[in-house]
Amino acid sequence: MRLVLSTLLVLGTLSPLAAQDITVDISARALNVRSGVWGTKLGLVRAGQSFAARGQRSGWYRIDWRGREAWVSGSYVQRSQRRTVEISATGLRARTGPSISDTILAVVRRGQRYVRLDRRGSWVRIQLDHREAWVHGDYVRDDGSASTPVSTPAPAPVSTPAPAHAPVPNPAPAPAPVSTPAPAPAPVSGDLTGLDVALDTGHGVTGSGRFDPGSLNSRSGIREFDLNRRVGQRVQQLLEARGARVTLNTYPRGAVRRSLFQKGQVARGSDVFVSLHHNAFNASAQGSEVLVHNTRTNSSSQRLARLIQGRLVQRVFGGQSRYDRGVKRQALGVLTGAHSVTRTAVLVEGFFLDTREVTPTRATQWIEAEAEAIAEGVGSYWLTR
Ligand SMILES: [Zn+2]
User: Fold this and answer.
1) Distance 278 CA to ligand 1 centre (A)
2) DSSP string, 155-183
3) Domain for residue 182, yes or no?
4) 156 backbone dihedrals φ, ψ, rounded to 5°
5) Cα 368 from Cα 348, distance rounded (Å)
6) Is 281 inside a domain boundary?
7) Average model confidence (pLDDT) for the chain?
8) Rounded to an integer, what distance in angstroms lies between the CA atom of residue 167 and that of residue 7?
């Protein structure tokens, strides 16, 4: 009895973790982030994301999440020892790429810690929630050098009082639609010789070498990684049958590790890049959406996105507008990578795979409908360019 009590006491106390390099990797499909141990729900984190950890209590980890302190249950995370960096500037811009001309994703703040992915020259790539971002290395304490005092750097990273940690969208209620005029009727057949398409099937082996299966339907066991791949294979068949050249990039276990940016760069030499994904949220949300990089509003990417989105709603959801989640803008790492080498890139979230209706039979039907919609959208884009 005494033993049990003392164990409880120890567990109930916050044990600060060593300042550096204690991280947790989320292993649950979707895990609630709370304000304390069993505290108020603040949001969700997902499999494949990693966070710097500050302490541990009653089997929960205190993590740095979106610029604040938050807690996750230790039952759904794996403790890891990734390198972290601590932000040393008051407010520091985190960007989509390693240069000041890259888009600002968020402003990160002094004292926050992030998992460090790699370094290129003076820039450091960090994991910012579900995205990757670059910060200038002069304004972070990198590696174990937490003891190195960082002097106030010359060019101030952020001149104005920065907004609170910039909005990092939740996985599901995605940013508002950008505008979705009905897609013009366009040919669903026609020769596509000369068109070069790069397909990216989302998830699989990540930049850190882990295998990320994406989201999951817990009832049927269907994994996003497998769905993405099946859609990719079918899109490839449909486009090749019309004369296009298609590269299908998948990242199964054992594949070479690639960051999202690098996965986008496989678009080099291609006319069109399409990243294939399927959403999951609360097991009741449903619908299709297509994402374009937030810097590409009036662009070929936007046009391709509309062509695909219109057909998705038509083919998968019988044209019912309540399933039309629209074309959205988001600074996604894979699109940043693709746009570093090609003009036209979109990311398709075909449907939510975590709903009750997504049985293996229904999944097979929807995969076919989705693949046809994507192939037709890409074909129309090319023939009407
Ligand atoms: Zn995905």
Assistant:
1) 5
2) S-S--SPPPSS-----SSSPSPP---PPP
3) no
4) -60, 130
5) 14
6) yes
7) 82
8) 40
